[in-house]
Amino acid sequence: MSPYLYNKQTWKLVLLLIALMIGLASLLYTNYLVKSLSASERTKAQVWAMSTRSIMTMPDVDDQFISFIYEVRDSLTLPAIITDEKNNIIFWRDLDSTKTNIKAEATNSPMLKYDPIYFQEELKIMQRLHKPITLQLDSKEKWIVYYHESDALRQLRVFPYIQLSLIALFLIIAYTIFNSIRKSEQNLVWVGMAKEAAHQLGTPISSLMGWIELIKLKYEAENDNTINEMERDVKRLEVVADRFSKIGSLPSLSNHNIYAIIKDYINYFKVRTSDKITFVLEGDQHVEAMINTQLFDWIIENLLKNAVNAIDTEGTITVTIIENIAKEEIFIDISDTGKGIPRYNFDKVFQPGFTTRKRGWGLGLSLTKRMVSYHKGIIYVKESEIGTGTTFRLVLKSNLKYEPTQV
Q1: Phi, psi values for residue 349, rounded to 5°
Q2: How far apart are CA 333 and CA 389, in angstroms?
């Protein structure tokens, strides 16, 4: 893995850990507040029940004291129910008035009663939420006090999750925006550097072409194989410089024979690699597609170099061209007998910075994927087996006219 990709992943991990720490701190503090408020509400329920008991069991005290107890009780707003030991309801407060004040229909009596089903449901909820409070009466009977959570406590329980969701949403939006800006700035820098490199290469390449022509004339070496190969290499440099000069502009697409272009590059490339590596080109020789020859040549160059690097000493690289007439597609399979790629790295190999080579930059396949997208095509690892080899599949549209995208 390249240092660039390693540092990028390290920063992502650090930011994730910081976000988790903030989230955990928020949850712990909210949990502390919930416990404090819950204890306060339990005390409130106890005071309400005790004041109710005082009113019921101390009828002979002076009116001023009774009024004070009434004020204390009525100031405590909390849905609650008091039952006896047999779960018969004795008192309640702050429940749904439409369920607690119902006229007795059977006798048309003006007396009020409560809905037993509603109360049983409320009791179940209260029993589930809190441990009941038990009050001992002077008659040795016991009151059981059940109570609800307040709206504030319920909202406080939910608040950290809403808060964390909003923070996460904000971070995602901010990361997307800043990442887009950063990539845009990086693209501008790379475009400028690429065009400047092409410009700087132009002069020495032209000079080299001139020197080669002078050597041919001086030594009458028009048919010398070594000088002809030197000339091919210089022309290759000219093609590379032309590629870089086109970065940041719209590529010109035209109809070309795919087999012929690949064959031409293989003929150039195989004499510059080991004699122990065999190149095989097979498949449909007549398929055509709308391509930019310089960029498409670059795609094939990167894939073949990648295949050569995958082979340790001796092996075979096979390029197969298949036309899918039904879908108007062209499949170009580049297979090697190299070391193979683990399945969990099938997608990673196209990420910028990912490489398994000690001196690799991890840019070849990511650049290849981008150039393939300029042609509205796709590339992926079709199959791979450790110790056996790998097949990359390039898919292009055949004879399809479309608007090119920016390089």
Answers
A1: -65, -20
A2: 13
Burial pattern 325-353, b for ≥16 Cβ within 10 A else e, equals: eeeebbbbbbbbbbbbbeeeeeebbbbbb
Hey, which bits of 219-314 come out as E strands? 254-257, 277-283, 288-291
Place of tokens 């009116």: 63
Q: What is the DSSP letter of 398?
A: B
Distance CA(31)–CA(375), nearest Å, equals: 56
- Would you say 374 and 25 are in contact if contact means Cβ atoms under 8 Å apart? no
- Within 10 A of 392 (CB to CB), how many other CB atoms are there? 23
Predicted structure pTM score: 0.50
pLDDT digits (tens, 9 = 90+) for 314-366: 999 999 999 988 778 999 999 999 999 999 888 888 887 777 666 666 677 88
In this structure, what token pair is assigned to residue 307? 């295949």
Question: In CATH, what number does 251-397 get?
Answer: 3.30.565.10
- What length is written for the chain? 407
Nearest to 18 by CA among 29, 7, 26, 30: 26
Conformation bin of residue 362: beta by default, left when phi > 0, alpha when psi is -120 to 50 = left
Helix (H) or strand (E) holding 101: none
Where exactly does CATH 3.30.565.10 map onto the chain? 251-397
